Amino acid sequence: MKVFKITLTQHSPACFASTRHSQNIYYTHDYIPGSVLWGAFINLFHQSGGPDIHPDFLNDNLRFSNCYIDVPGKSKSFAVIPAPLSLYTCKTNPYSPRDGKNMGHELVDLLFRHRDNCRIETCNSALRPLNTGYIYDAGSGKPGLYRPNKMVEMHNRIDKATQNTRQEHGLFAYELLDETGGIFSGEIQVMETSPLLEFIRDIKCRDLELGKARTSGCGHFTLNIEETNGSDRVCFFRTGFQDTLNLYCFSDVIVMDGFNRYQTVITPGILGLEQYIEMDNAFSRGFRVEGYNAKHNKPKINDIAILKGSCFSYRVKEGAVKEEAGREFIAQRLKHIEMNGLGLRLNEGFGRVRFNRGEFKEDHDGTLLEK
Ligand SMILES: [Zn+2]
Fold first, then answer.
1. Burial class of residue 172 (count of CB atoms within 10 Å of its CB; 0-12, 13-18, 19+)
2. How far apart are CA 160 and CA 260, in angstroms?
3. Hey, where are the domains in the chain?
4. Distance 97 CA to ligand 1 centre (A)
């Protein structure tokens, strides 16, 4: 696989939503989904004189990752990971980073805790999930939690003749992701043999309109593509393991079991390791992935996905850990999954997982460290 690093500079607020919520609002994701880029590149390819849809857009020879916000720093920006769902904080005085200091009580990473030790040690308070946001490791002096800015824009122009809004036959609003001036980064992977490799290589820099409400001026981005020698995200975490291992979802993941039923936890069977490991702890959330096919003017088939940030831990079965061959088999399998992804719709950015992250701990100055 050839890996291209991509950055998208945001020039106007944008809405990345699939369907309108029952409360007549389009809620946006706080990142640029790979599926949005996938659609935009099909469009670019078509404009460049190619056929309607090249087959490599529909298999996994060409993959678009999600693009997450780069947190700006004084001298450099910081890459983020979606906050693990196992991060919890004090219910009465929650973690709240401000100006490089944590004003609340600490965070705990429950993936690494024993189940009956689920209270904040200093105040003995109950815990609540941190919920959403991104974690970055600033190294020194800065807290590592970031939540992208959002705003809401009302659309309530009434059509005089019908007394409805002009298009939607009702009042509605867009929630917008507003990191104007900010940079989102991700990557494109292309199989070396794919005819689309040259197409990707030639793009280099391009203005794009992405997401909803583009006719109202939303979703302006500048795309930059840079060829690299490989993915720097693959080795984000340690690769070694002892008698336990863990999995972290860097993007949403869609997996099915042997009976084609959607799963909301990633079981040892899904990893192909049921002989070697058993599940210990799970922090996951399932949700429905909805979509709309603009070309066919029909909703897409829904999938059930596991939310990004979900994480799981496993125990290595006793027999397996003692045998060198068993350990080697597990290590190879983990490496294969990290490199190739897990589950369905890999070309749209789903299925990116990492193994064996460290525990997130708060340093004495409020910095989050991976230990
Ligand atoms: Zn507390």
1. middle
2. 51
3. 2-76+148-228, 84-131, 244-355
4. 15
How buried is 301 (Cβ within 10 angstroms: 0-12 exposed, 13-18 middle, 19+ buried)?
Answer: exposed
- CA 89 / ligand 1 centre spacing (Å): 8
Per-residue burial over 217-252, b if 16 or more Cβ lie within 10 Å, else e, is ebbbbebbbeeeeebebeebbeeebeeebbbbbbbb
pLDDT greater than 60 at residue 101:
yes
Q: What's the gap in Å between 106 CA and the centre of ligand 1?
A: 7
Fold of 2-76+148-228: Alpha-Beta Plaits (3.30.70)
**How far is ligand 1, taken at its centre, from the CA of residue 78, in Å?**
29
Q: Ligand 1 centre and the CA of 250: distance in Å?
A: 29
Residues ≥6 apart with Cβ < 8 Å to 155: 165, 168, 171, 172, 173, 174, 213, 216
64-79 pLDDT, tens per residue?
A: 999 999 988 778 888 8
pLDDT single digits (tens) 176-206: 999 999 999 999 999 999 989 999 999 999 9
Per residue in 347-356, pLDDT (tens digit) is 999 999 988 8
Cα of 122 vs centre of ligand 1, distance in Å, is 7
Return the CATH number of the domain spanning residue range 244-355. 3.30.70.1900
Compute the distance from residue 83 Cα to the ligand 1 centre, in Å.
20
Indicate if 244-355 has the same CATH topology as 2-76+148-228.
yes
